[in-house]
Amino acid sequence: MNCEQLLNTTFQCQCGKTHNVPIRKIVYAEDAVEAMPSILTAFTSGRRIAILADSRTWSIAGEKAGSLLRQGGWTVTPVLVPDSARGGPICDDRTFRNLHRNLPPADILLAVGAGVINDLAKWLAFERDLPYAVCATAATMNGYAAANVAPTVKGVKTLHVARAPQAVFAVPSVIRDAPFELTAAGLGDVLAKPVSTADWLMNHLLLDEYFCPFCARLINDLEPAYFDHPTAIRDRQPAALEALFTALVYSGVAMTVVGTSAPASGGEHMLSHTLDMMSSVDNVPHDLHGRQVGLGTIFAAALYEQILKIDTPKPVLPPADIDHNFWQHLAPNVAEQYQNKQPLLNTIAQKITNPQTWNTFREAVRPHVRTPQQIKNCLKQASAAHTGTDINCPRPRLKNAILHMHEIRKRPTVIDLARLLNILPTQTDPLIDQYLTH
Ligand SMILES: [Zn+2]
Ligand SMILES: [Zn+2]
User: Residue 46's domain is classified under what CATH number?
Assistant: First the structure.
């Protein structure tokens, strides 16, 4: 399937819904920046553009975009997002308020950067009701084409709907020359796909959640280019990087079309979110999203491997409350998510004791999941993070995250299923030893 044909269309899908793809253009080309002035002209009748960047992405592509846009008749105002005390800029309510207050008059926004800059621009575009476009500087996460933004508000990681970009631009040589750990993180994020699809199916089959087979398949054709050839990512081969970047962008398209993060974020993301949240409790730094997701994906695949071996499930209901002491100031938010999940877990526990339902579930999920060893080998051969040491997380901290990651989100995932089937917490140590320590 040629994904590009979907851009800027509304179509009747096999899932019964009418899907709308608001993203109009994806340009992955050496002259992508040169193409901006004419492409952006189609998105607004005004000619004032604000370019959001940090000091690094400004020199990588922002400055060039600014001068070409000026030559093309645009009034350009650079908006440099300051670095945080810890390093790069962050997407939180404080940074957002400052940008919002000081945003120059503009008809369109252009983000030049990766996750944080893109999220801030998308959030601003939404609040100001402006169109926006992004020039991606690294293949590091799947949020470029997603309508969601994931800011930290009052110290808590949140997720809300903002808006999708009109266009995504990327220059292959910029993507190639980005720090390699960013690219390896992108691989970790896109490898989440088999687990997130399986989790989405689980919600569909056991909780009657909406599921779109078309969106679930959207990036399947791109997968072999990086999954079967991870050393091509390590060696920064152009075709593999393009496949990785495109898969990340279309993962975002799938989330935008469906309106939730279900197509690209399931139980494998919980480890990463938990580590981020732990960091907000104790100030111990966390690693890049995609690097943590890579480990989470290995672990979630290991859980599926155990789950699919079970012929007759004997579910045990998890504790009624969360570990308040562990979550500290985050406890009220976490508890709310967890409480909302309880009725869903009860339903799942009931349904999986029906042998027919259980077998239907296993047969549906089996073709999607990969073995933990396959995921690990792929990350390892690509020189991406695949152990606790790689992400600077000592074993006790990793174990703590794994023991608490089922508490943070309302939507059930493989982590909850593993809890219901008593694989967690009982197998925590052997699974960490087998898959995340070397
Ligand atoms: Zn659909
Ligand atoms: Zn992700």
Answer: 3.40.50.1970
